[in-house]
From TrEMBL:
<feature type="domain" description="3-hydroxyisobutyrate dehydrogenase-like NAD-binding">
    <location>
        <begin position="92"/>
        <end position="208"/>
    </location>
</feature>
<dbReference type="GO" id="GO:0008679">
    <property type="term" value="F:2-hydroxy-3-oxopropionate reductase activity"/>
</dbReference>
<dbReference type="Pfam" id="PF03446">
    <property type="entry name" value="NAD_binding_2"/>
</dbReference>
<dbReference type="InterPro" id="IPR036291">
    <property type="entry name" value="NAD(P)-bd_dom_sf"/>
</dbReference>
<dbReference type="GO" id="GO:0051287">
    <property type="term" value="F:NAD binding"/>
</dbReference>
<dbReference type="InterPro" id="IPR008927">
    <property type="entry name" value="6-PGluconate_DH-like_C_sf"/>
</dbReference>
<protein>
    <submittedName>
        <fullName>2-hydroxy-3-oxopropionate reductase</fullName>
        <ecNumber>1.1.1.60</ecNumber>
    </submittedName>
</protein>
<dbReference type="Pfam" id="PF14833">
    <property type="entry name" value="NAD_binding_11"/>
</dbReference>
<keyword id="KW-0560">Oxidoreductase</keyword>
<dbReference type="InterPro" id="IPR029154">
    <property type="entry name" value="HIBADH-like_NADP-bd"/>
</dbReference>
<dbReference type="GO" id="GO:0050661">
    <property type="term" value="F:NADP binding"/>
</dbReference>
<dbReference type="InterPro" id="IPR006115">
    <property type="entry name" value="6PGDH_NADP-bd"/>
</dbReference>
<dbReference type="InterPro" id="IPR013328">
    <property type="entry name" value="6PGD_dom2"/>
</dbReference>
<feature type="domain" description="6-phosphogluconate dehydrogenase NADP-binding">
    <location>
        <begin position="2"/>
        <end position="89"/>
    </location>
</feature>
Length: 233
């Protein structure tokens, strides 16, 4: 907790810097920035992307909002954690960039899961499908890194479904505030709510495959092997 009587700012000396690397509402980042200024301190919003692998290997993408001089002061710390470090603008800009990231992730994951579901029902070797498409126009981080986990029924979290649902809710709220109509985002939120309803709120975001398969009456976790030419398996 940053704000409030027991928050980080209460113990921060004048001139100190607080960096919020969680994903939150952009308006909260602005509120933290203003509260920090009132105490003679500084604040940055710096949410990240890259999952568990990126965190372990120091290859996170860090999206920063705040004053340029403060960003520069903290840059040595950012470089220890991240490979891609981008300052997007003033307070809240980092959170807006993260919302963009979450919208892209959710929509891309729908395509990854539906593509693999189609390939499975068509009787294709799913590993060969990934080999075919990953280096082409359909390639993505999700198909290359999470596709194999989907095939292997490994749905442990790099990022929890329940956390993505929270983030998509923020993105929808911000889109509404800006007068944007984003039907794909709204659909993705509904699909992930279905994943949570299936008991996978604490699974990884790629557990979307389980819920989408269930809609087509396929028990993905206990699926039989595919076979070439099948259209009814």
């Amino acid at each position: 907790m940053i704000l409030g009587p027991q928050g980080v700012l209460q113990g921060l000396a004048p001139g100190g810097i607080v960096v919020d690397m969680t994903t939150n509402e952009p308006k909260l980042a602005i509120e933290i920035h203003e509260a920090a200024q009132a105490r003679g301190c500084h604040a940055l919003d710096a949410p990240v992307s890259g999952g568990d692998v990126g965190a372990r290997e120091g290859r996170l993408s860090i999206m920063i909002g705040g004053h340029p001089d403060v960003v520069e002061a903290v840059m040595p710390c950012f470089r220890l954690m991240g490979k891609t470090i981008v300052h997007h603008g003033g307070p809240g800009a980092g959170q807006h960039a993260k919302m963009t990231n979450q919208i892209l992730i959710a929509s891309t994951m729908v395509g990854v899961c539906e593509g693999l579901l189609y390939a499975y029902r068509a009787g294709l070797d799913l590993n060969k499908v990934i080999e075919s498409v990953a280096s082409g126009a359909a390639g993505s981080w999700s198909i290359s890194n999470l596709g194999p986990r989907i095939i292997q029924n490994r749905f442990e979290p790099g990022f929890y479904v329940e956390h993505l649902i929270k983030d998509l809710g923020i993105a929808i709220q911000e889109a509404k505030r800006m007068g944007l109509v984003l039907p794909g985002l709204a659909l993705a939120e509904q699909l992930y709510l279905a994943v949570a309803a299936c008991g996978h709120a604490r699974s990884g975001t790629h557990a979307l495959q389980i819920a989408l398969a269930r809609i087509s009456n396929i028990d993905w976790l206990n699926r039989p092997p595919t076979w070439a030419g099948s259209s009814t398996g």
